[in-house]
């Protein structure tokens, strides 16, 4: 791992256009479970039953229970060292932008600024019918929409089968296409279209994960915990 980290630090030092893409593995060290690791969320709950628009329409009580629990579990979360390292690398000019699949908001809390929240943000509540914004409390209290009256408040996240926010996705793709380095951290790359990002860059591709990448051929693969690996990269760079 050390040699690959040294190799990575060298190419980062000689680039000024790195884009980072993160997944749920970036948040597990902040005590937010991921989805597909052995104790991930989708081993406890079938995503089709809670994380789809059909679930919202056909079984709102279960949909509401699932996302209320996720919101409450995020009440006291804090960024870990790895989030702060990414914010510092952006501040020092090494990172151009950060595209995340995570809905926790931890990257922004740690100080990253140029962020693309590709799957939205769980704290942004809206009415699924008329799109009026609402507060988390109104969602948790199962209030009806105060504009159209419907019982359809939902978190502003991308459910399976929904489109990604168009402008966010297009800007993230443009940055990846123009990047000299794409660093992919803590994602199993199972979900389209974000799992196409490694094919979109002409630059070097880097994979930081607890497991080997499957079905991809990254230029550099570092097997380790995101927080530890990012801290080692920072020590070599700054
Ligand atoms: N450090 C590095 N990698 C980690 C760590 C860690 N501390 N913890 C977990 N991982 C890795 C796992 O090995 C796995 O490859 O992170 C990856 C997490 O994969 P998933 O659970 O599939 O999460 P993700 O890839 O972000 O899922 C994408 O699927 O359910 C949807 O919308 C949801 O955004 C999510 C999307």
List the helices and strands and how they pair.
Elements lengths: L1 H12 L4 E5 L24 H4 L2 H6 L1 H14 L7 H11 L3 E6 L5 H4 L5 E3 L2 E8 L5 E2 L1 H5 L12 E5 L8 H13 L2 E5 L18 E6 L10 E4 L2 H12 L1
Parallel strand pairs: 1-2, 1-7, 2-3, 7-8, 8-9
Antiparallel strand pairs: 4-5, 4-6
Helix pairs in contact: 1-9, 5-9
The structure holds adenosine-5-diphosphoribose.
Structure description:
This protein is α/β, with parallel strands linked by helices and about 240 residues long. The protein has 2 domains: about 1-30 and about 80-120 and about 165-238, 3-Layer(aba) Sandwich (Rossmann fold); about 35-75 and about 120-155, SIR2/SIRT2 'Small Domain', CATH 3.30.1600. The protein has helices spanning about 1-15, 45-50, 55-60, 60-75, 80-90, 105-110, 135-140, 165-180, 225-235; strands at about 20, 95-100, 115, 120-125, 135, 155, 180-185, 205-210, 220-225. The strands form 2 sheets. Strands 3-2-1-7-8-9 form a 6-stranded parallel sheet, sandwiched between helices. The longest helix is centred in the N-terminal third of the chain and has 14 residues, at about 60-75. The two termini are about 20 Å apart. The model has no long low-confidence stretch (mean pLDDT about 95). The structure holds adenosine-5-diphosphoribose. The site of adenosine-5-diphosphoribose (APR) has 23 residues, from loops.
């Amino acid at each position: 791992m050390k040699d690959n980290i040294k190799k990575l630090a060298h190419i980062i030092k000689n680039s000024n256009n790195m884009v980072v893409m993160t997944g749920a593995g970036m948040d597990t060290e902040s005590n937010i479970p991921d989805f597909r690791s052995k104790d991930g969320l989708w081993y406890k709950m079938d995503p089709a039953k809670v994380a789809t628009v059909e679930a919202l329409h056909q079984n709102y009580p279960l949909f509401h229970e699932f996302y209320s629990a996720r919101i409450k579990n995020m009440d006291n979360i804090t960024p870990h060292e790895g989030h702060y390292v990414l914010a510092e690398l952006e501040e020092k000019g090494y990172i151009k932008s950060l595209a995340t699949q995570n809905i926790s908001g931890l990257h922004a809390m740690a100080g990253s600024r140029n962020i693309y929240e590709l799957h939205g943000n769980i704290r942004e509540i809206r009415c699924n019918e008329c799109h009026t914004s609402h507060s988390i409390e109104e969602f948790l209290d199962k209030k009806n929409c105060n504009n159209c009256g419907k019982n359809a408040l939902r978190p502003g996240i991308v459910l399976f089968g929904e489109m990604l926010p168009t402008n966010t996705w297009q800007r993230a793709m443009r940055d990846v296409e123009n990047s000299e380095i794409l660093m992919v951290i803590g994602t199993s790359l199972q979900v389209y279209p974000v799992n196409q990002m490694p094919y979109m860059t002409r630059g070097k591709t880097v994979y930081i994960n607890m497991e080997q990448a499957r079905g991809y051929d990254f230029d550099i693969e570092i097997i380790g915990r995101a927080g530890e690996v990012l801290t080692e990269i920072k020590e070599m760079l700054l």
